[in-house]
Amino acid sequence: MSSVAHCFGQAASDYDQHAALQRLAGQRLLAQARPADTWLDLGTGTGQVARQLPGRRVLALDLAPAMLRQAAQQGTAHLICGDITRLPLQASSVDGIAANLSLQWCDPLADTLTGLANALRPGGQLLATVPLAHTFPELRPLCNQGLLACNRFATTQALAATLADGPWAQTRLTPFTEVVHFDSPRALLGHFKATGAHHSPERHPGLRGRQWWQRLNAELARHRDAQGYRLTWHLAILEATR
Q1: I need a surface site. Which of 99, 121, 168, 240 has the fewest CB within 10 A?
Q2: Are strands 36-42 and 55-62 parallel, antiparallel or unpaired?
């Protein structure tokens, strides 16, 4: 099992309790989804998006078996255990593909997008929510100081260039921002593990004792407001037509 699958599998049982951002981004994606015969939901997790896609038939794919078990318990049908980068599907077999905060784990993204285009029928729709550079501005000073490890995300310009070089008839990127508040620094940092998103190619320094914790608290307190400790996601809806 890959490290990504392991992280998300560990989070499966409590995922929905902590996935506020995923739900917000998923609703934006669903608002753009066109009715179609067959949809494919990539990185379906517990199936929140899959169960709402406007398709006569919806395939729900995830790399983590534990997530698929949770999805099945919640009534998600047509479950597939598989890798987004190596889709177990025939060419031109689906009308729509949804990917809610899952494509950022695919490297190189350009190759993955080519594979998704191959799976779509002519005129098919790809919809994805993706994090952008400058996500988590509240954490960047800590990352720059070596106190935390953060994933690095593509700029809007880089994503647009990747799409332009692919086999798409039309493409569009629509940036948006979501802010989620937490009641403590511990809850904020715990969110990443609770949603499986603590996998990072950069090594996490881990706990470093009282001094590390005090420095971390002091930095996060700078971003505290009446609602709690703020964490900001800069995201985009990626839409492409085959």
Answers
A1: 121
A2: parallel
